[in-house]
């Protein structure tokens, strides 16, 4: 991922990055400092668990792209809170983008399952805590546009799964 975004001078955070001094660029704190202070560092690549706690990004980052989410609601909510929190200047807009599979609904895929379960958990938290902000997050999750590519058929996806699982024998195919 870092190579694909090299022109944006990214910094990455994940579980294997050790904690340490902010002056050490190889540590978690050093990488966070670089993202805050280096104007050429335009992207932070992190998973919600690695960037969920102890990071304040709301003054320098206003867009989050989720490529892969887990079933853990706290990771998701904490990661959103890193960029959307009290203290934002008036008029600052925070944007959350969630990329999900193009597989049609009903085919069965992890992205749809994670989205469904997060939505259920957010609704339950909203009711338990009587928190209108959680209601809004659950509402956004429920009403976002699904990235369904209607030109991909369930047979196309099943075929892809069979290929990935090694169940297709290419020697039997007609060659032209």
List keywords for this structure.
176 residues, 36% helix, disordered C terminus
Describe the protein:
InterPro entries: P-loop_NTPase. It comes from Devosia algicola. This is Helicase C-terminal domain-containing protein. The chain is mainly alpha-helical and 176 residues long. It has a domain at 101-176. It is 36% helix and 8% strand. It is built from five helices and four strands. The chain has helices spanning 28-37, 73-83, 110-129, 132-143, 154-164, and strands at residues 11-13, 44-46, 63-66, 95-98. It has a two-stranded parallel ribbon with strand order 1-2. The chain has a two-stranded parallel ribbon with strand order 3-4. Helix 3 (110-129) runs antiparallel to helix 4 (132-143). It is globular and about 55 Å long. The model is unreliable at 172-176 (pLDDT under 50).
Low-pLDDT residue intervals, each spanning 5 or more residues: 172-176
Structural class: mainly alpha
Hey, roughly how much beta strand do the residues contain?
5-15%
Taking all residues together, what is the mean pLDDT?
A: 79
Note the gap between the termini: 36 Å
Shape type: globular
What proportion of the residues is helical, as a percent range? 25-40%
Oligomer: single chain
Number of helices, where a helix is a run of at least 4 consecutive DSSP H or I residues: 5
Biggest beta sheet attributes: 2 strands, parallel
Q: What is the count of β-strands?
A: 4
Side by side, the strands of the main sheet go 1-2
The value of Rg in angstroms is 20 Å
Q: Would you list the SSEs in sequence order as H and E?
A: EHEEHEHHH
Protein name: Helicase C-terminal domain-containing protein
InterPro entries: P-loop_NTPase
């Amino acid at each position: 991922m870092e190579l694909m975004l090299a022109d944006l001078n990214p910094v990455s955070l994940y579980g294997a990055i050790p904690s340490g001094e902010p002056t050490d660029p190889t540590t978690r704190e050093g990488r966070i400092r670089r993202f805050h202070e280096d104007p050429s560092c335009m992207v932070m690549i992190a998973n919600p668990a690695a960037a969920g706690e102890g990071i304040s990004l709301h003054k320098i980052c206003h867009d989050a792209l989720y490529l892969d989410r887990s079933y853990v609601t706290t990771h998701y909510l904490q990661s959103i809170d890193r960029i959307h929190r009290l203290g934002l200047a008036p008029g600052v807009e925070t944007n959350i983008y969630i990329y999900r599979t193009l597989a049609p609904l009903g085919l069965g895929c992890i992205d749809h399952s994670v989205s469904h379960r997060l939505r259920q958990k957010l609704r339950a938290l909203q009711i338990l805590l009587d928190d209108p902000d959680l209601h809004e997050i659950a509402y956004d999750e429920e009403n976002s546009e699904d990235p369904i590519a209607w030109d991909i058929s369930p047979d196309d996806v099943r075929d892809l799964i069979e290929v990935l699982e090694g169940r297709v024998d290419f020697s039997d195919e007609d060659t032209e």
